[in-house]
Amino acid sequence: MGWDSGANDCEPSLCDSVLTAMTRERTFGLIVTLWLASALTALAQPVSLPAGGQAGAPPPAAETHEEVPLVVWNRMIHTFRAPYEQYSPAQRAAKAKARIEALPERGPWEIEASETEVGQYRGMLVAVNGVPVIGVLPGDLDAESGETLRQAADKAAARLRAMLEARARQRSLPLMLKAVGLVIGATALFLAALWFVFRARRLLHSRVQASADRSRRLKVGGVDIRPQVGALGRAAVQSFVWAASLLLAYLWLVFVLERVPYTEPWGERLGAYLINVSQSLGVRALGALPGLFTVLLIFLLTRVVARVVGGFVQQVEEGKLTAPWLQPETAQATRRLVVVIIWAFAVTLAYPYIPGSHTDAFKGVSVFVGLMISLGSGGLVNQVLSGLVVVYSRAFRPGDFVRIGETEGLVSEVGMLSTKVVTRRREEVTIPHAVLVGTTSTNYTRLAGDEGTIVAATVTIGYDAPWRQVHAMLLLAAEQTAGVRKNPHPRVMQKALADFYVEYNLVFNLDRPEDHSAVLSELHAQIQDAFNEFGVQIMSPHFETQPRKQVFVPKADWFAAPASNAPPDIGSYPTAEAPLGVNSKDGKQT
Prior knowledge:
The chain is of the alpha+beta class. The protein contains 13 helices and 15 strands. The protein has helices at 12-25, 28-44, 89-101, 149-170, 173-214, 226-259, 264-318, 328-350, 360-376, 378-393, 433-437, 467-479, 516-533; strands spanning 68-72, 75-80, 111-118, 121-128, 131-136, 219-220, 223-224, 401-404, 407-414, 418-422, 428-432, 441-443, 453-462, 491-497, 501-510.
């Protein structure tokens, strides 16, 4: 009888009857006799070795087949890697499994591993009650493990004994009743723990929501974020509850599987996996502590530097400090830009110390995020750069009354991407900075100062109307219009002598630039009333032919009411020599 071939030179029926008789009678002498007979039979059989092969050497790599584990009753006993004569590792495993399953289900079992030689093969035999069950060849050894032939045989014997004992326990009624009782108790405890976890979830939900509602400082940019914080807290509690529930279910499953002998290996593997994962995470966490400490230190230092720089720039913005290289209008944008640069530098400095930053997965995610940002930030970068141009050009600031293209109103916000303008109809118009950079804008507030904003009303009158009378009527209309400042007083200027009419500009000052549309509307009405009252027609004639009567104003009508013969006072007007708000005579502010 060979190691793995069974009865090679006898009929199968005869071998089965002999094995059955041995199992029933358990006669030690017959076992010893059969063992010796099988050894002699194996010695009598020829053994083929490769040329130059030596006794005791494992089969060459060319004859080694796949690894075939010997699994009996849900337990791995041994792994066959080498063929024996005409038997492949799979056939050796199948025959060994059949011999093990034919062993008696109840002990005692005398299991021993002994070294033997069959022909030129040297190996180990694992026998149960004197019956060879498993043959261990040198070719079955795992070269990487470094174990010896004796160690492999002893391990197979120990696993075989554990399998036989587990199979015997499975058929023990008291032990199974005890296992059922433990499973029922564990299930009750598991359900009670789940009930406690879900009850704690409701309590934590209410506590988180109450804390968010009581807080008064949860605002970002003036926006109340308490609902978002409450939702985030509830999501965190829900995640914790699900994680705790899955962990409890995992532990319950491990305990239940380990109580049944047949499923005990599954439970042991699940428990070992949980322990290994916990140990691996613990080791990695301990290994990541120096890097996390470095990242935390960089974060704290960066926060201190950002606060110092931000506080300095904010004081410049509020007017408490002055810096020749920094204007209050651009201080806010400068503060944001400098803080972003500081944090970007800190992230670059801390990146190598982040746990997992050197792994391929982390690098792949970084490349993917960078690619997404690169593809989707083209328009964003354009808007941000345009916003910097708008901010640092100091064209306007919040509170200024401006006209941008066809939009006229108060600037409510100058952001990084767009500017918001509130019109007189309470409409908020958002103008992207990329559009704003290429559009002409007018700021009515920037140079207003104490004198207010200068506004001009234009009217064209024919040459038959005395210009002195027109001046007087325009000034009268301005005097009767609410909102027009009396000091500096309004003035009239003749802007152009056109082909058919004279173009008059009534220049006046307003206290509130945002009221100039309403004031102009009322002023236009007052101009019409004044011209109608004094019988002067507002008309700008275009001649098709030369009129028969000359179009001029007689000298007797030069000072028609309400005009006077005093020289006109056109006041100061911005010139190259006298800028806006400076008197051209004495250089004083007007």
